[in-house]
Amino acid sequence: MNDRTVAQRPAGTGSTGARAGVPAARPDSEAPIPPTTEADRKTVVRPGDRIFAGLATGSGIFIVVLIAAIGIFLLLQAIPSLALDKVNFLTSREWSTGDVNDMRYGILDLLLVTVVSSAFSLIIAMPIALGIALFLTQYAPRRLARPFAYVIDLLAAVPSIIFGLWGLLVLGPVLTPIGEWLTSTLGWIPLFSKGNVSIELGGTIFTAGIVLAVMILPIITAVSREVFDRTPVTHVEGAIALGATKWEVVRTTVLPFGKAGYVSASMLGLGRALGETIALTIILSGTGAAFAWSLFDGGATFASKIALAAPEFNDPRTAGAYIAAGLVLFVLTFGVNAIARAIVAGHKEYE
Amino acid sequence: MKTKRHGAVLGLIAAGALLLTACGSDENTPGAGSTSAAGDSAAVPVECGGKSNLSAEGSSAQKNAIDTFVQAYGQKCAGQNLAYNASGSGAGVKQFNGSQVDFAGSDSPLSESKGEIAAAAERCEGNPAWHLPLVFGPVALGYKLEGVADLTLSGEVAAKIFNGGIKKWNDPAIAALNSGASLPDKEIKVVYRSDESGTTDNFQLYLETASKGAWTQGAGKQFKGGVGEGKEKSAGVAQAAGSVDGAITYVELSFAQDNKLSIAKIDNGSGPVELNEETVGKAIDAAQIKGTGNDLVLDLKSIYGSSTAGAYPLLLATYEIVCSKGYDADTAKAIKAFLTVAATTGQDGLADAGYAPLPKAFQEKLLTAIKAIA
């Protein structure tokens, strides 16, 4: 009995495929491609090919040169100021650049606040974005999925100053009781301990991280949705044919296929969070105290620190200190992207 | 229940503040400040004409004042306009020295050590640039404290509050200045400007001058007190201070009023002084000038350290930096017309915008300087 059913199945699928015509047509349409390329190779290259190849190569070179130029510019502007720095640039928590003869600045706090707020936002946004993307591609009826997706994309178009004001004036007060509860109940965990700014004013990394999460949500969702949507139908059908439930289909086909895309989408979101400026200058409270690994600390990120000082730059040496900080952000973002690339490259099995 | 009581007190404070300001402007507008200004504006002839679109750039602290001036300028001289880009003092000076704008607005005078004076002289074709302190903005010590509508602070006590020496509202040092007031046992929440600003610079300079050594952190555009928390721009600090009980901040008067902060009186050694047009005018009048001739660089320490009775010492003075000579005829004519309007009829709307109108004696000094521009 068992043997017979197994034997019958491939025969059955084979016949339905042939009747539907789709799998049968596929080899046919793919087959002629290699001969045409071979034929092209023999003929002369047309001007259009040259122009297109030139444009494509040119664009590629242009962006590399541009990024290198940014890097070199930052470096050149930063070096004279770094030479004037009286404390260790990488490990100091001080930031005093007003007196050019006694500049004492280090990026440790900026780096930590930037990384912690971005990581916190990513931890919130990643699962939610995953849920939304799966809902839109797997669960939602088609008719609902499309308008829903547009609405989420719309979130990406909201200016960051709006997010900033919303975070400070609307979300901040709402989060105050939650923050107070967290610090009083879970205060023994360093991450939830009472920070160096007051929770009432809302200028904490906690508020900032949640606002950042909302800001990066549409980016992660949009890219993940596109990737999940491209799960090969054959995989999905195969899983269904083996008797998988909806969740099992998602777990065994959609997620493994889309994992790399989802991770790189998250890294894209992280890049946005690391560089977010205006929203954070509005939300985050400045503080004289050092960052102590609490979500209820204040502080400044690289980008917000630069934005807060930029209008009053009147000395290239002072500006250079901030440019040096910008250079570290540049390297940080570069590192994050490199990690994302490595992850994507390491998960190519679906191709 | 608590919030309700809170609201009632706030309402009272607000109503009180409104009443006070209403009284103030009623008495003062026709009285000391504006009659003289209005009388002068009729007397001082304005020669309209010249370049029809002037450009200026600089301090954001005087943005609203310049807007008022531009409006008055347009009314007096039809078809004439000025574009002011409030990009910050540093940027303004840079653009002025690079001949990109006709004059600069700056919170601080040109710096010798940064070569700004030399660069300005070069821009003005070998003539010195003049500083015209045209816009004075009183800085309020705005606070929010339930049940305390009337508070007096001295320079020394303010310095200790802003550098953490005094942490509670019922500190004996505060109580000594406010006998009879019931000060709560509450922590003082200091709110400062997280962005770099001329207001912070001037405030710290004031503390340094008036604190009898209690402020040792020095001045500068970054807040150096080391306590409290920073918020962005005047709007941010005023909003934050207005949203939490026990907060205090330093902010331009108009922002303090908009956010219904109570405003502390300052005791400069000869009794508590309320912040109003008259007391600020008195302080400006008492100011000494450091510059020579028509270059009206102010000696800020003479304002901040002043113990003149009834003078409110905490002011932000911002300059218009202009060439004494070296403009082409068209530009010079327009600049003179604009500055004349600004120093006369332009003063009328200043109080509403949160600035202090120029007292008469000082106004005359300015007009002399403006007339001498060629």
TrEMBL record, chain A:
The keyword Transport applies. One of its GO terms (cellular component) is plasma membrane. SUPFAM superfamilies: MetI-like. Keywords: Cell membrane, Membrane, Phosphate transport, Transmembrane, Transmembrane helix, Transport. It is a multi-pass membrane protein. The chain crosses the membrane at residues 51-76, 110-136, 148-175, 195-220, 277-296, 321-344. One of its GO terms (biological process) is phosphate ion transport. The keyword Lyase does not apply. GO terms for molecular function: phosphate transmembrane transporter activity. Part of the binding-protein-dependent transport system for phosphate; probably responsible for the translocation of the substrate across the membrane. This is Phosphate transport system permease protein. It comes from Saccharothrix carnea.
UniProtKB/TrEMBL annotation, chain B:
Residues 52-341 form the PBP domain. GO terms for cellular component: ATP-binding cassette (ABC) transporter complex. One of its GO terms (molecular function) is phosphate ion binding. CDD domains: PBP2_PstS. Residues 1-22 form the signal peptide. PROSITE patterns: PROKAR_LIPOPROTEIN. Pfam families: PBP_like_2 (PF12849). Phosphate binds at S59, S60, A61, S89, D107, S197, G198, T199. GO terms for biological process: phosphate ion transmembrane transport. InterPro entries: ABC_phos-bd_PstS (IPR005673), PBP_domain (IPR024370), Phosphate-bind_PstS (IPR050962). Keywords: Phosphate transport, Signal, Transport. Belongs to the PstS family. This is Phosphate-binding protein.
